[in-house]
Amino acid sequence: MTASGADRLSSEVSDTGRLPPDASGVDRLPQDSELLLDARELHADPARSAGFAPAAHALLAELVAAGAPLGWPDPPAPDEVEELLAGVCAAAGSGDAALRAVYADGSLLGLGYWRRYARPTHRPHADLEKVAAAAHGRGLGRLLTTALVEDARGAGIEVLTLDARGDNHRALALYASLGFREYGRLPGFVAVGEQRWDKVFCMVDLRGRG
């Protein structure tokens, strides 16, 4: 992983609810949700684009304050989130990342992204850096992750990796159900104060799959 600051590239999924897939194979949004947007669609709406970073900060800060293992020990500052998302969106514009956001009734309920590895020998591959959703039991985490995997496949990514905190059983179960498998683990590697958890590495190989 290549980003800096507070191990912020830890992956998180907040729920494992699921709705039947549509014809494209991507799980459907819950009925009261409105939009699953990619970076291009998000920035095509100037008003939504302008409010994205503040809304994302509010969502991430709330989740971290409630104990979500998103890589920050304390809620991130607004400028940190803005800088992070600006980098992801810029990379998405050049084909080196993908961003997804879920809105319902005009409110941001979830977001996720992956980025292509910067090292030249790793360029065919990407890392799923973060998936965060506000509501449990609505299938948003599964929806975002499924869409991001399909985005990676469409971008020609060969291997999509991620890491998660070892006690994040909900996320790890979801990743496994979507074809990710564990390929390594660092015992007691994640530190929050005096607490320690394993860092679990997972991957899905997208080569040769239609």
Automatic annotation (TrEMBL):
<dbReference type="Pfam" id="PF00583">
    <property type="entry name" value="Acetyltransf_1"/>
</dbReference>
<dbReference type="InterPro" id="IPR016181">
    <property type="entry name" value="Acyl_CoA_acyltransferase"/>
</dbReference>
<dbReference type="InterPro" id="IPR000182">
    <property type="entry name" value="GNAT_dom"/>
</dbReference>
<keyword id="KW-0012">Acyltransferase</keyword>
<dbReference type="GO" id="GO:0016747">
    <property type="term" value="F:acyltransferase activity, transferring groups other than amino-acyl groups"/>
</dbReference>
<protein>
    <submittedName>
        <fullName>GCN5-related N-acetyltransferase</fullName>
    </submittedName>
</protein>
<feature type="domain" description="N-acetyltransferase">
    <location>
        <begin position="50"/>
        <end position="199"/>
    </location>
</feature>
<feature type="region of interest" description="Disordered">
    <location>
        <begin position="1"/>
        <end position="31"/>
    </location>
</feature>
<dbReference type="InterPro" id="IPR050832">
    <property type="entry name" value="Bact_Acetyltransf"/>
</dbReference>
<keyword id="KW-0808">Transferase</keyword>
